[in-house]
Each structure stands twice: as C-alpha cells, then as structure tokens.
Amino acid sequence: MITPKELFEKSGKVFLKTVRAVLKDEQVFPLVIPANKHVSATGFSELKAAIVPLYQQSKQAKGKGYTIEWKEKRIEGTKQKLPAKIYFETLNDYLFYTKREIDYRSIQSAFGSLTVTFPNLSEWAKDNISFLLTYSIILDDLIKVCQYFSRNKPPHLLYLRELPIAIHSKFIEDNTTPLKKLLDELLPPDWINKKETDFLGRYFIKKPNVYAQMRILDEQLKHAVGFDELALTIDDSALLQWQPDKVFIIENRACFLSFPKVKKAVAIFGEGFKIRLSKHIPWLAKAELYCWFDLD
Asked: pLDDT digits over 18-48, tens only?
C-alpha cells in the first residue's frame, strides 16, 4: 500500500502539469493520484500500520489535503475499510498538501504581469509554467527589456549597457537565456538573426570592437606594418597587405609574449580573434594555421 511519503512525492511530480491545466481552464479536479492500494498485510496489526498513517494525513483527519474513498473488504473474518481511490477535491487541497502555495502564487503573479504587458504571450505562458516559476523574481525586469526591444526596431546603435532601460547594468548579460526565450516569441522574424546564438548578434545590438594583438616573428614581414607588435580590429586585420607562411593563434599570454622567432610567421594573441576565425581574412586563409591553446 502507498505510504504518505510516496503519495507526497507522486503528488508533487504533477505540480507543473496541474497548474498548466488550471491556467488553461481545464477540468482537473477532482485530481486522482494513481496509487498502489493493494494490501499485502496478512493480519489486522499489519493492516492498521499501513492504513492509519494514510488516514492521519488525509482531508478527513486534517480538514485539507487528499481525500480517501473507502471500500469494505473482509479480512480474517471481519469487515475492514480499505482505500479505493485517493484524490484532491480542490486546488486548495492540492496546494496545501504539496506545500506549493507560494510557488503557485508566484506563477499566478508572473503570468498576470507577463500577459497584461504582452497579451499575445498568453498561450505561450500557459505552456511554459516552469519558466514562470523559475524567473518570477526577475520577471518585471525581463519585461522592461522586452518592452524596449519590441518598441525599437533594430539595428540598435548603442552598446548593451548603454540601452536606456531602467535595470541593473549587468542584468541583460546575466539573463540572456530567459530573454532569448521571450524575445524570440515577441519580436518580428526579421528583427532576429536566428543564425546567431550570441545575444548581441541575434538582436542586432552594437558590438564592441575586438582587437587582435600581433607579434611579428620574422623581420622579413616587419616592413608591411613597420612595427614588431601591433593591435588591430578584426576588420582592419583583414586589410593587411602581407602573406605570412605560418600563423600561430595563442591563447596564453605568457606563451604569446615569449614565443620564439619563426621564419615568415606571425603570432596572434586573444580569445576575440579565435572565436572569429570564420570571418574571411585573405592572408589568414592562405597561411598554415596553428592553434596554440591550453588543453582544458
């Protein structure tokens, strides 16, 4: 026979599904909890030990919680009441027993705030109860960000922290995951570059320039730039009129600074350059490329 602990765990597992049904105005109560009601006890004392705790936690005993529908069965020559069905009559009963009243209120509040501001997200919100619960605490600020992007057509000619939104300066950077989910639902398709996973590129936000720091490893190449070391943006790097035979892209600064001289070779330092290797750089495409990265 199912124990109160097992019943509590089973009931909790259907919380999100139950709330979704409530928000969709579906008939969910009475909510029956499938339970093993088979009695394995062979004597009255064992039967009592199994049934009494189940009854003590029920609505019949506590005034709230699950209801037990009983049936009579003859055991050892006497009639005994056994559970035939276990269910919750109302949402309040269910929330009380599962101890999820606070979570439910958080979801209700988040749903209300989101759908008042963006009525077109009503059905999406009902299907994303876990999202509402997870981000309920910061939802007001998520909404502020979404309002800005839904009212301003891209490209956005300001850096991320310059955007005129009344939020903490790092809020967007720290919450790109929930913002992507919302913005992908809200914005017109041509306002989103779905080929981009990076937040800035996906929503056409101004990106800071990334500089490639370079060391000339052979004097024969120095005449092309006039320096032993230089730093250029990725776009400007593509304009260099030279052709190294070898290019070493180095992740570790100490390795970059101490890298030995190599004939007709260049060393490039920095994560920024590494993540943009797909960009067309004519001289890089024709060189032997060596990636000098940490093995982690």
From this structure: 999 999 999 999 999 987 656 655 556 667 7
Tell me the residue ranges of DSSP E strands in the chain: 31-32, 67-75, 78-88, 211-216, 229-233, 246-250, 265-269, 288-292
Q: Are 66 and 8 in contact (CB under 8 A)?
A: no
DSSP 8-state symbol, 223: T
Residues in the chain: 296
Give the tens place of pLDDT for each residue, 239-265: 888 999 999 988 888 899 999 999 999
pLDDT digits 0-9 by tens, 157-187 = 999 999 999 999 999 999 999 999 999 999 9
Long-range contacts of 282-291 (CB under 8 A, 24+ apart): 282/238, 283/240, 283/242, 283/243, 283/244, 284/247, 286/243, 287/243, 287/244, 287/245, 287/246, 287/247, 288/245, 288/246, 288/247, 289/247, 289/249, 290/246, 290/247, 290/248, 290/249, 291/249
Q: If you search the block for the tokens 């339970």, which residue do you land on? A: 35
Give SS3 for 5: helix
**Per the structure block, which two tokens stand in for 263?**
């004939």
